[in-house]
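Lab meeting, item 3. Inverse folding demo.
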């Protein structure tokens, strides 16, 4: 994937933009008959969408089953856990098979524990102190990403409907 390097734009280059996201469930069914995680992400954010696409491709056939849900398309998906659509779009959420909901850096840590090549990072973020620092870093990055993904007033008027 190519990112536009212009400081005024944080979007994927048009020629590198995927036409559609791959399957909504990835992983190896032989490793788990049911999804062990459901990842809720903001598909309207090109940075978030790009990362989730990378994770989906990484998990394909190499991890336990992971379900993926774009909350921009399904803003009601987390209502059962009292998370409204706006909150769901601001932070990544991960639901495990036991019904525990993780958010922010904890959600990334839980996701990474399932992904090959990232498992060590998921375990590292579980260490007390590191998880707090990771959450502070996540909040800072998420604020910049959200600002980058939100169109400016001039972009909103030119937006194709």
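The presenter then showed the designed sequence:
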């Amino acid at each position: 994937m190519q990112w536009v390097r212009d400081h005024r734009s944080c979007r994927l280059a048009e020629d590198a933009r995927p036409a559609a996201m791959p399957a909504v469930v990835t992983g190896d069914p032989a490793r788990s008959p049911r999804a062990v995680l459901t990842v809720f992400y903001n598909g309207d954010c090109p940075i978030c969408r790009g990362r989730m696409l990378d994770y989906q491709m990484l998990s394909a056939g190499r991890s336990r089953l992971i379900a993926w849900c774009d909350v921009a398309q399904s803003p009601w998906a987390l209502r059962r856990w009292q998370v409204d659509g706006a909150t769901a779009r601001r932070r990544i959420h991960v639901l495990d098979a036991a019904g525990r909901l993780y958010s922010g850096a904890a959600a990334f840590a839980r996701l990474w524990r399932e992904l090959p090549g990232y498992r060590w990072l998921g375990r590292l973020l579980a260490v007390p102190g590191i998880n707090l620092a990771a959450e502070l870093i996540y909040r800072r990055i998420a604020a910049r990403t959200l600002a980058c993904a939100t169109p400016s007033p001039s972009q909103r008027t030119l937006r194709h409907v």
